[in-house]
Amino acid sequence: MLEFSILLPAILNGLTIGAIYALIALGLTLIYGVLHIINFAHGSLLMLALYGVFFLHSLFGIDPYLALPVAAAALFGIGYGLQRFIIGRASHGKDENILLVTLGLSVIIENLALYLWRSDTRTIETPYSFEVLDFGVAFIPVPKAVAFVGALLVAALLWLLMTRTDLGRAIRALAKERQGAKLVGINAEHIFAMSFGIGCACLGIAACLLLPSFYVSPQVGHAFVLVAFTVVVLGGMGSFVGALLGGLIIGVTESLGGLFLGESLGQLGIFLIFIIVLLFRPTGLLGQKA
Amino acid sequence: MRTPTLRTGWAILVFALVLLPLPLLIKSEFWLTWVTLALFYAYLGQAWNLLGGYGGQFSFGHALFFGTGAYCTAVLQIHFGINAWAGFVLAAVAAGIVGAATGWLVFRYGLRGSYFALVTLAFAEVFRILANTFAFTGAGVGLLVPLQPGAWQMQFESKAGFFWLLLILVVACLLFTWWLQNARFGARLMAVRENEDAARALGVDPFNTKLLAIIASGAIAGSAGAVYVQLFLYIDPGIAYGPSMSVEALLVPIIGGLGTVFGPVLGAFALHTIAEIGRLVFGEAPGLNLVLYGVLLVLMVLFLPNGLFGLGRFGFGLRRRLQRKGGANA
Known about the structure:
CATH class of chain B: Mainly Alpha
Strand order of the largest sheet of chain A: 1-2
Shape of chain A: globular
Largest interface: A-B, 44 and 43 residues
Oligomer: heterodimer
Number of helices of chain A: 11
Strand order of the largest sheet of chain B: 1-2
Structural class of chain A: mainly alpha
């Protein structure tokens, strides 16, 4: 039988990466919940954020954790602008068009990165990169522990934003009933762009939490985008708690899959979950009926 | 029916007759290759147009079918010594089966719109990982198809052979879509595209209709993969199942005009003209041609959602309206 001492670290490791997945998926699910579109550029925007944090560190020596507000604000701005000036104008009344535009944006961002920064894999080194926390049964690297706690904190903040503020109420109103929300005077264009911006800000934060224990390359978005979709689909489109739960489940699945099947085939477990959930329970674990 | 049907038929005839003698006229190897590749992407775009343009099911992973066809013919040829023409037919069959399996799973559970796009993308990614893993697909190294020149192995001595082969395939597809526009099946498919629930209320079976469309679309894309392998004699997981082929498959009909007979052909030639200009201006740099494709996709959707044909139809409609106005005045 399997040694408990191998299994437990794998599970803990999966939970830490799962929290990051959850954070990325929260952005995706927020955008989906309000705009009813799938943002195919999500992975590429994360990649862009990772490069941003990387260059802040390598050029100006700014610690990734200190760069957090900058990254979040920058990504918010990018997201707001994209939705307001490009994506929002492309629909022509058809959701398919938005799908195509976000696909086009992801192709642009990704290949521009490939052109500018080549396909090299880059990492950064921080004083705490190799420090570990001893949990008795397992060692967890400090950056991963920080990422875990940080992701959960951001999720909590996001939840507060959605439930306790006027902005959150406006977003939820638009998500539920577009026509009605507009009738009571909500500026739909602005709120759509705000939602998109907040969704992207999650990516900025995720990038800061991720970089100390991860790498960046132009293709890094790929690794996350389908995972984030899987998390969202598993948890239920538009569901916050679902995204959190889904992220943790997928993180553990990936970690255990890698342990049993090896890196390459371990990824297949994620896709299988994705396809099976889409086919048999497209509303996800906690999603509402469409 | 609004489309002047016979005119489309004449247009197909003229298109075929104009392109037929081209290899005899073009002496430059470069330009012949260029036209041949444009025809190849037109063919791939025609496959996508069938499902996306006429059926309204936007696949983001058509590489799934292309790659399956490519690997099918390459593996059969390398490991079993099966003739390339037989491989071509088997590639279409294999990709059709993959299309049937995908369609059966996806449409059965009523997945539409973005869900459909996501699932096709995920399937293509699964196949890429699998092709990257197993030895008989050459894993990450890819497969080199042995050089066996001669029309018997579909490896023509000159590019002209490939040109004519692709021209025949493209014209066959033009004829097929022309037929589709006027056939009952086409009418059902377009009804599903416009409004699935309304179509069902009128007695159309959306499941069967979409399933047939994805099988046909998959088989055509698979046969395109088979031609690609003989043309380049090499295939690897990135080429076969990577996003670049999927993007080109959908970009071509979108630029030309979704759900039109000539859209993919027009789109393929326009796209490759632009790509060539881009190469002249920016030089050969990794990624830049795809950046251009992305920009084109965004611009097309923003400003010309009906493609280049939409532009033409707009002009045509304007002229007709002016004529009618003139007639009323007279």
